[in-house]
Recover the amino acids of this structure.
């Protein structure tokens, strides 16, 4: 049943990716379609004039593939893994990761070939992001990196070591005049949409959602690796109305407004404590976080 649920979820994701796409252009030759969950690049090749005329087109295609491989590897290196590092940083830090990434990129798929009147050939290639989730969702923290300590949600001081941390802590009342949270206690939600427009948030393979105290509300620690590898930790969109009808979060998603971007790479989002509390309470009874039914709206 679990595998069947994933298949149904993926079919729905595929249908909506046709109509709504969040595309991140990373250089002149390609970028990432975060909705379709693929990295795409184009290579241009010229025919070899030293070959017989009948072999020149084939040589141009092969030359374009070599360029496309170089371009897509360059794009992949610029992808943010999380708020602290990029794929390139991780490749430099680990020969094992470098070898895995280069292996994935070499297994690109050719999706289109175009012949130009000059004799040049353009080749479009793509690599699924799922291949990189396989690599990076198991990455341990970098040497010297430590998890942010829990803090008291009321006073902001470090939580006493050895005492159980109250994950479902009561949130203090918002100051007078503060808008009510979009999330409503007691409502059954099918997913989570975070509106982060206007905050400069950037897409990443493994972003986090944190509360105002920096405590994690959603991230790789909440998800099923099976779902995360197939569909990604989060989905990205530009249009909130399209996101509401996306199979990833439909039929009744909780919608909250992000306060700001977080982390050096600005890939994490901060939400209000009140919204974080409702999400935690809802997650106790539902598995929408485990199934990666989370979308972030970006500019």
């Amino acid at each position: 049943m679990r595998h069947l649920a994933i298949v149904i979820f993926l079919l729905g994701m595929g249908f909506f990716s046709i109509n709504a796409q969040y595309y991140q252009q990373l250089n002149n030759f390609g970028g990432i379609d975060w909705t379709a969950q693929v990295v795409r690049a184009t290579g241009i090749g010229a025919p070899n004039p030293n070959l017989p005329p009948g072999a020149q087109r084939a040589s141009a295609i092969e030359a374009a593939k070599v360029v496309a491989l170089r371009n897509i590897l360059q794009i992949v290196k610029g992808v943010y893994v999380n708020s602290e590092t990029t794929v390139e940083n991780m490749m430099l830090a680990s020969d094992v990761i470098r070898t895995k990434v280069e292996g994935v990129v070499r297994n690109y798929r050719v999706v289109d070939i175009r012949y130009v009147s000059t004799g040049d050939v353009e080749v479009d290639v793509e690599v699924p992001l799922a291949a990189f989730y396989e690599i990076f969702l198991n990455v341990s923290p970098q040497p010297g990196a430590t998890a942010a300590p829990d803090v008291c949600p009321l006073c902001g001081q470090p939580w006493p070591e050895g005492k159980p941390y109250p994950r479902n802590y009561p949130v203090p009342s918002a100051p007078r005049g503060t808008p009510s949270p979009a999330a409503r206690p007691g409502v059954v939600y099918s997913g989570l949409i975070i509106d982060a427009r206007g905050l400069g948030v950037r897409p990443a393979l493994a972003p986090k959602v944190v509360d105002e105290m920096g405590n994690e509300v959603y991230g790789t620690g909440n998800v099923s690796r099976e779902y995360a590898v197939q569909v990604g930790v989060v989905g990205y969109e530009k249009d909130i109305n399209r996101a509401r009808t996306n199979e990833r979060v439909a039929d009744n998603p909780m919608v909250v407004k992000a306060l700001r971007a977080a982390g050096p790479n600005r890939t994490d989002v901060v939400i209000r404590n009140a919204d974080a509390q409702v999400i935690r309470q809802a997650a106790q009874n539902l598995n929408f976080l485990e199934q990666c039914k989370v979308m972030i709206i970006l500019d």
The chain is about 30% helix and 20% strand. Helices lie at 2-19, 53-77, 87-93, 95-106, 130-136, 225-231, 240-244, 273-285.
